[in-house]
From TrEMBL:
Residues in the signal sequence: none
Taxonomy, superkingdom: Eukaryota
Domain (Tim44-like): residue spans on this chain: 146-216
Pfam family of the protein (one): Tim44
Species whose genome carries this gene: Cyanidioschyzon merolae (strain NIES-3377 / 10D)
Identification of the protein by name: Tim44-like domain-containing protein
Taxonomy of the source species: Eukaryota, Rhodophyta, Bangiophyceae, Cyanidiales, Cyanidiaceae
Biased composition (Pro residues): 112-123
Length: 304
Protein backbone atom coordinates (compact mmCIF):
# COMPACT_ATOMS: atom_id res chain seq x y z
CA UNK A 1 0.00 0.00 0.00
CA UNK A 2 1.17 3.48 -0.82
CA UNK A 3 0.17 4.90 2.54
CA UNK A 4 1.57 3.46 5.72
CA UNK A 5 -0.90 1.55 7.81
CA UNK A 6 0.32 3.46 10.84
CA UNK A 7 -0.93 6.77 9.43
CA UNK A 8 -4.27 5.22 8.52
CA UNK A 9 -4.63 3.77 12.00
CA UNK A 10 -3.98 7.19 13.48
CA UNK A 11 -6.72 8.69 11.33
CA UNK A 12 -9.23 5.98 12.18
CA UNK A 13 -8.27 5.96 15.86
CA UNK A 14 -8.95 9.68 15.96
CA UNK A 15 -12.42 8.99 14.58
CA UNK A 16 -13.09 6.33 17.24
CA UNK A 17 -12.67 8.87 20.02
CA UNK A 18 -15.68 10.83 18.71
CA UNK A 19 -18.06 7.86 18.40
CA UNK A 20 -21.17 7.96 20.57
CA UNK A 21 -22.89 5.04 22.27
CA UNK A 22 -25.60 5.02 19.60
CA UNK A 23 -22.98 4.70 16.85
CA UNK A 24 -21.38 1.84 18.73
CA UNK A 25 -24.69 -0.02 18.97
CA UNK A 26 -25.12 0.23 15.18
CA UNK A 27 -22.10 -2.01 14.63
CA UNK A 28 -23.90 -5.08 15.99
CA UNK A 29 -27.38 -5.68 17.40
CA UNK A 30 -26.22 -5.91 20.99
CA UNK A 31 -28.82 -5.13 23.60
CA UNK A 32 -28.57 -1.98 25.63
CA UNK A 33 -28.54 -3.93 28.86
CA UNK A 34 -25.74 -6.22 27.63
CA UNK A 35 -23.54 -3.28 26.63
CA UNK A 36 -24.14 -1.49 29.91
CA UNK A 37 -22.09 -1.55 33.07
CA UNK A 38 -23.63 -0.64 36.38
CA UNK A 39 -22.49 2.61 37.96
CA UNK A 40 -22.08 2.99 41.72
CA UNK A 41 -25.11 5.27 41.69
CA UNK A 42 -27.30 2.43 40.39
CA UNK A 43 -27.71 3.69 36.83
CA UNK A 44 -27.39 1.12 34.05
CA UNK A 45 -27.12 3.63 31.20
CA UNK A 46 -23.35 3.56 31.37
CA UNK A 47 -21.67 2.42 28.16
CA UNK A 48 -18.21 1.04 27.64
CA UNK A 49 -17.08 3.13 24.69
CA UNK A 50 -14.07 2.47 22.41
CA UNK A 51 -10.61 2.75 23.87
CA UNK A 52 -12.02 2.00 27.35
CA UNK A 53 -13.87 5.31 27.72
CA UNK A 54 -16.74 5.23 30.24
CA UNK A 55 -19.42 7.73 31.13
CA UNK A 56 -22.58 7.92 33.26
CA UNK A 57 -25.77 9.44 31.90
CA UNK A 58 -26.53 11.02 35.26
CA UNK A 59 -23.10 12.67 35.43
CA UNK A 60 -22.87 11.58 39.05
CA UNK A 61 -19.11 12.08 39.02
CA UNK A 62 -18.41 8.49 40.02
CA UNK A 63 -14.99 7.31 38.93
CA UNK A 64 -15.49 3.59 39.61
CA UNK A 65 -17.77 1.24 37.71
CA UNK A 66 -18.80 -2.23 38.73
CA UNK A 67 -19.79 -4.75 36.10
CA UNK A 68 -20.68 -8.38 35.93
CA UNK A 69 -18.81 -11.10 34.12
CA UNK A 70 -21.42 -10.96 31.37
CA UNK A 71 -20.81 -7.23 30.99
CA UNK A 72 -17.07 -7.78 30.60
CA UNK A 73 -17.59 -10.59 28.07
CA UNK A 74 -19.88 -8.51 25.89
CA UNK A 75 -17.56 -5.52 26.20
CA UNK A 76 -14.68 -7.69 24.97
CA UNK A 77 -16.81 -8.76 22.01
CA UNK A 78 -17.52 -5.13 21.27
CA UNK A 79 -13.81 -4.26 21.34
CA UNK A 80 -13.05 -7.12 18.92
CA UNK A 81 -15.81 -5.94 16.63
CA UNK A 82 -14.52 -2.38 16.68
CA UNK A 83 -11.00 -3.55 15.83
CA UNK A 84 -12.19 -5.69 12.89
CA UNK A 85 -14.29 -2.80 11.58
CA UNK A 86 -11.25 -0.53 11.92
CA UNK A 87 -9.08 -2.89 9.85
CA UNK A 88 -11.79 -3.16 7.20
CA UNK A 89 -12.05 0.63 7.00
CA UNK A 90 -8.30 1.04 6.59
CA UNK A 91 -8.12 -1.68 3.92
CA UNK A 92 -11.02 -0.18 1.99
CA UNK A 93 -9.50 3.31 1.98
CA UNK A 94 -6.09 2.06 0.86
CA UNK A 95 -7.62 -0.15 -1.84
CA UNK A 96 -9.54 2.79 -3.25
CA UNK A 97 -6.41 4.91 -3.27
CA UNK A 98 -4.34 2.20 -4.96
CA UNK A 99 -7.01 1.79 -7.61
CA UNK A 100 -7.01 5.54 -8.25
CA UNK A 101 -3.23 5.52 -8.66
CA UNK A 102 -3.42 2.60 -11.09
CA UNK A 103 -6.07 4.39 -13.16
CA UNK A 104 -4.22 7.69 -13.42
CA UNK A 105 -0.60 7.60 -12.18
CA UNK A 106 0.02 11.10 -13.59
CA UNK A 107 -2.13 12.64 -10.89
CA UNK A 108 -0.42 10.96 -7.96
CA UNK A 109 -0.53 13.51 -5.15
CA UNK A 110 -1.61 16.29 -7.51
CA UNK A 111 -4.90 17.03 -5.71
CA UNK A 112 -3.63 17.59 -2.19
CA UNK A 113 0.13 17.04 -2.11
CA UNK A 114 1.42 16.58 1.41
CA UNK A 115 3.79 19.27 2.64
CA UNK A 116 7.45 18.27 2.74
CA UNK A 117 8.77 17.23 6.13
CA UNK A 118 11.26 19.52 7.87
CA UNK A 119 14.76 19.33 6.39
CA UNK A 120 17.34 17.20 8.16
CA UNK A 121 20.37 18.93 9.69
CA UNK A 122 23.52 19.39 7.67
CA UNK A 123 26.28 16.86 8.16
CA UNK A 124 28.77 17.55 10.91
CA UNK A 125 32.24 18.61 9.76
CA UNK A 126 35.27 17.68 11.91
CA UNK A 127 36.88 20.54 13.78
CA UNK A 128 40.24 20.18 12.04
CA UNK A 129 38.53 20.41 8.66
CA UNK A 130 36.52 23.43 9.77
CA UNK A 131 39.76 25.21 10.65
CA UNK A 132 41.28 24.26 7.31
CA UNK A 133 38.23 25.50 5.41
CA UNK A 134 38.24 28.78 7.32
CA UNK A 135 41.94 29.31 6.61
CA UNK A 136 41.53 28.61 2.89
CA UNK A 137 38.54 30.92 2.61
CA UNK A 138 40.49 33.72 4.29
CA UNK A 139 43.31 33.23 1.79
CA UNK A 140 40.85 33.34 -1.10
CA UNK A 141 39.41 36.58 0.25
CA UNK A 142 42.93 38.02 0.29
CA UNK A 143 43.35 37.08 -3.38
CA UNK A 144 39.81 38.11 -4.36
CA UNK A 145 38.65 40.73 -1.84
CA UNK A 146 34.90 41.10 -1.35
CA UNK A 147 32.67 41.55 -3.22
CA UNK A 148 34.66 39.55 -5.80
CA UNK A 149 34.53 36.51 -3.50
CA UNK A 150 32.42 35.97 -0.42
CA UNK A 151 31.58 32.58 1.15
CA UNK A 152 27.93 33.53 1.63
CA UNK A 153 27.53 34.73 -1.95
CA UNK A 154 29.35 31.63 -3.16
CA UNK A 155 26.84 29.36 -1.38
CA UNK A 156 23.93 31.31 -2.86
CA UNK A 157 25.42 30.87 -6.32
CA UNK A 158 26.00 27.17 -5.64
CA UNK A 159 22.33 26.69 -4.71
CA UNK A 160 21.27 28.49 -7.89
CA UNK A 161 23.59 26.26 -9.94
CA UNK A 162 22.16 23.18 -8.20
CA UNK A 163 18.61 24.10 -9.18
CA UNK A 164 19.70 24.99 -12.71
CA UNK A 165 21.46 21.66 -13.27
CA UNK A 166 18.49 19.73 -11.88
CA UNK A 167 16.12 21.66 -14.16
CA UNK A 168 18.31 20.88 -17.19
CA UNK A 169 18.30 17.20 -16.22
CA UNK A 170 14.51 17.21 -15.88
CA UNK A 171 14.07 18.91 -19.26
CA UNK A 172 16.78 16.70 -20.83
CA UNK A 173 18.58 19.78 -22.12
CA UNK A 174 22.17 19.43 -20.92
CA UNK A 175 23.49 21.71 -23.67
CA UNK A 176 21.69 24.64 -22.03
CA UNK A 177 24.16 24.51 -19.14
CA UNK A 178 27.06 25.61 -21.34
CA UNK A 179 30.30 26.18 -19.44
CA UNK A 180 28.60 25.95 -16.04
CA UNK A 181 29.54 22.24 -15.94
CA UNK A 182 32.67 20.46 -17.07
CA UNK A 183 32.74 18.08 -20.02
CA UNK A 184 32.96 15.14 -17.64
CA UNK A 185 29.81 16.14 -15.74
CA UNK A 186 27.91 16.90 -18.96
CA UNK A 187 28.85 13.47 -20.31
CA UNK A 188 27.68 11.76 -17.11
CA UNK A 189 24.33 13.59 -17.22
CA UNK A 190 23.77 12.61 -20.86
CA UNK A 191 24.62 8.99 -20.08
CA UNK A 192 22.05 9.00 -17.28
CA UNK A 193 19.33 10.24 -19.64
CA UNK A 194 20.33 7.72 -22.32
CA UNK A 195 20.28 4.86 -19.81
CA UNK A 196 16.65 5.58 -18.90
CA UNK A 197 15.73 5.91 -22.57
CA UNK A 198 17.29 2.53 -23.37
CA UNK A 199 15.13 0.96 -20.68
CA UNK A 200 12.07 2.82 -22.04
CA UNK A 201 11.58 4.21 -18.56
CA UNK A 202 9.98 7.58 -18.02
CA UNK A 203 11.36 9.39 -14.98
CA UNK A 204 9.78 12.58 -13.67
CA UNK A 205 11.78 14.43 -11.04
CA UNK A 206 11.00 17.65 -9.21
CA UNK A 207 13.04 19.61 -6.70
CA UNK A 208 10.53 20.57 -4.04
CA UNK A 209 12.86 22.58 -1.82
CA UNK A 210 16.53 23.32 -1.18
CA UNK A 211 16.87 23.45 2.57
CA UNK A 212 20.44 24.74 2.77
CA UNK A 213 24.06 24.29 1.79
CA UNK A 214 27.45 24.29 3.47
CA UNK A 215 31.11 24.01 2.48
CA UNK A 216 32.49 20.65 3.58
CA UNK A 217 35.99 20.75 2.06
CA UNK A 218 38.46 22.99 0.19
CA UNK A 219 41.70 22.12 -1.57
CA UNK A 220 43.96 23.21 -4.41
CA UNK A 221 44.92 21.40 -7.60
CA UNK A 222 47.88 21.98 -9.90
CA UNK A 223 47.50 20.53 -13.40
CA UNK A 224 50.06 19.67 -16.08
CA UNK A 225 49.47 22.98 -17.86
CA UNK A 226 50.94 24.80 -14.85
CA UNK A 227 47.64 26.16 -13.65
CA UNK A 228 46.49 26.35 -10.04
CA UNK A 229 42.83 25.60 -9.33
CA UNK A 230 40.82 25.87 -6.14
CA UNK A 231 38.15 23.24 -5.49
CA UNK A 232 35.28 23.64 -3.02
CA UNK A 233 32.98 20.77 -2.03
CA UNK A 234 29.43 21.87 -1.20
CA UNK A 235 26.81 19.74 0.54
CA UNK A 236 23.17 20.50 -0.28
CA UNK A 237 20.03 19.50 1.59
CA UNK A 238 17.34 19.11 -1.07
CA UNK A 239 13.86 17.59 -1.16
CA UNK A 240 12.98 15.54 -4.26
CA UNK A 241 9.79 14.00 -5.63
CA UNK A 242 10.40 11.33 -8.27
CA UNK A 243 8.08 9.08 -10.29
CA UNK A 244 9.29 6.08 -12.30
CA UNK A 245 6.97 4.64 -14.96
CA UNK A 246 7.16 1.50 -17.05
CA UNK A 247 7.05 1.57 -20.89
CA UNK A 248 3.28 0.92 -20.80
CA UNK A 249 2.76 3.95 -18.57
CA UNK A 250 2.06 2.04 -15.38
CA UNK A 251 3.55 3.28 -12.14
CA UNK A 252 6.73 1.52 -11.07
CA UNK A 253 7.89 3.61 -8.12
CA UNK A 254 6.95 6.88 -6.49
CA UNK A 255 9.00 8.84 -3.97
CA UNK A 256 7.32 11.89 -2.47
CA UNK A 257 9.23 14.53 -0.51
CA UNK A 258 12.46 12.60 0.05
CA UNK A 259 15.35 14.58 1.54
CA UNK A 260 18.85 13.90 0.20
CA UNK A 261 22.30 15.36 0.84
CA UNK A 262 24.25 15.47 -2.43
CA UNK A 263 27.82 16.78 -2.45
CA UNK A 264 29.02 18.69 -5.53
CA UNK A 265 32.50 19.99 -6.28
CA UNK A 266 32.96 23.45 -7.83
CA UNK A 267 36.27 24.55 -9.30
CA UNK A 268 37.75 27.87 -10.39
CA UNK A 269 41.10 28.94 -11.85
CA UNK A 270 43.16 30.72 -9.20
CA UNK A 271 46.42 31.42 -11.02
CA UNK A 272 48.52 30.27 -13.95
CA UNK A 273 52.26 30.27 -14.46
CA UNK A 274 53.86 32.84 -16.75
CA UNK A 275 56.94 31.91 -18.81
CA UNK A 276 59.57 34.67 -18.64
CA UNK A 277 62.86 35.01 -20.58
CA UNK A 278 64.83 34.68 -17.36
CA UNK A 279 63.30 31.34 -16.49
CA UNK A 280 65.34 28.31 -17.38
CA UNK A 281 67.35 25.47 -15.93
CA UNK A 282 69.70 27.85 -14.17
CA UNK A 283 66.96 29.94 -12.66
CA UNK A 284 66.42 29.42 -8.95
CA UNK A 285 63.72 32.04 -8.47
CA UNK A 286 60.07 31.32 -7.72
CA UNK A 287 57.87 30.87 -10.81
CA UNK A 288 55.82 33.89 -11.73
CA UNK A 289 52.08 33.40 -11.43
CA UNK A 290 49.28 35.48 -12.86
CA UNK A 291 46.24 35.69 -10.62
CA UNK A 292 42.82 35.37 -12.23
CA UNK A 293 40.90 38.65 -11.95
CA UNK A 294 37.77 36.89 -10.68
CA UNK A 295 36.69 33.28 -10.12
CA UNK A 296 34.69 31.52 -12.81
CA UNK A 297 33.16 28.60 -10.99
CA UNK A 298 32.37 25.36 -12.78
CA UNK A 299 30.78 22.12 -11.60
CA UNK A 300 33.45 19.45 -12.06
CA UNK A 301 32.30 16.52 -9.89
CA UNK A 302 29.03 15.13 -8.52
CA UNK A 303 30.29 13.11 -5.58
CA UNK A 304 26.96 11.60 -4.48
Amino acid sequence: MLHATRDALKRCSGALWSWSAAQVRQLQPLSRQACAMRCVCGTRSVYRLPLHQTSCSRDCGARSLRGTAEDERVSGQLDSLLWSRLVQTVSAKDSEQDAAVARDPDNVGSSTPPPPPPPPPLSSVPLWRQLKIRWHLLQLQRVWPPPVFSPDEFLKGAQFAFQRVCAALIEKDIDALGDAVSDQVAKALRETIEAYERENMNVTMQVEQVGGAQIVNTYGRYDFERRLFVDIDVEFVACFSTIWKKPDGSLLKHEQNVWRKPVWCFEALLAERIDSPSSGLGSIGMPQMRIAPEPEWQLVHILN
